[in-house]
Amino acid sequence: MKDPATTTGLLVVISGPGGVGKGTVCQELLKDGDLAVSVSVTTRAPRPDEKEGRHYYFRTRAEFERLRAEGRLLESAEVSGNLYGTPRAEVEKLLAAGKTVILEIDVQGGRQVKSVLPCLTIFLMPPSREELEARFCRRGADSAQVMAARMALAVEEIAAAADYDFVVVNDELARTVTEVRQIIKTAREKGDGI
Ligand code: 5GP
Question: Which CATH number is associated with domain 10-190?
Fold first, then answer.
C-alpha cells in the first residue's frame, strides 16, 4: 500500500498520426472522473466548434514564445506550421492532486516529456494505411497536395511508435477505449510513473 502523502498521479502520453482518432478516444477517457486531459496552448486558429480553454488556449506566436521562454511549458513542438505546448503548472497541479493526466500530443512532444518525467506512453495506430487515407478523405475536401502532406506526416509519426510503451490499434472506438483504460489501470496499480 502506498503512503497517501507521497502518492502522486500518473502522467500518460497519448500520440498517434492525425486522423487516428486521438481526440475522440481522449473525450471517452475523460468520462472517468479520475482522469484529466491537459489543455494545450497553440498558435493555430480555432476551428469553428473549438472553445478557448476547453479545446486549446489559443495564443499568438509572441505570447507562445514568451510562455516557452519563461519555462511555463512542459514541452513544445511545431506541427504543420503551428506551435503547440503543454502548460506545466496545470499538469503539475493535477498530478499533485493524484489525478491521471492525459497529454494528447505529437511524437516530438512525447519524446520531450519522456526525457524529463516518468510517464506511461501509448501510441494509437490506425488499422491500416487505407483506413487512414479513408479517414482523411471523410474529414473534408482537401487538395491532393494537402492529403499527400498529411499522409507523409502520418508515416513519419508512425515510425516513432516503437519508442512507446504500448501500441493500441484504433479499429473500433469502444474496444480501443477499453484497452487504453486497462493499460492505465494496470500502470496505476503497479505504481508506474510515481
Ligand atoms: P490539431 O491542430 O489537429 O488539434 O493537432 C495537431 C497535432 O498537434 C496533433 O498531433 C496533436 O496531438 C498535436 N498536439 C496538440 N497539442 C499538443 C501539445 O501540447 N504538444 C505537442 N507536442 N503536440 C500537441
Answer: 3.40.50.300
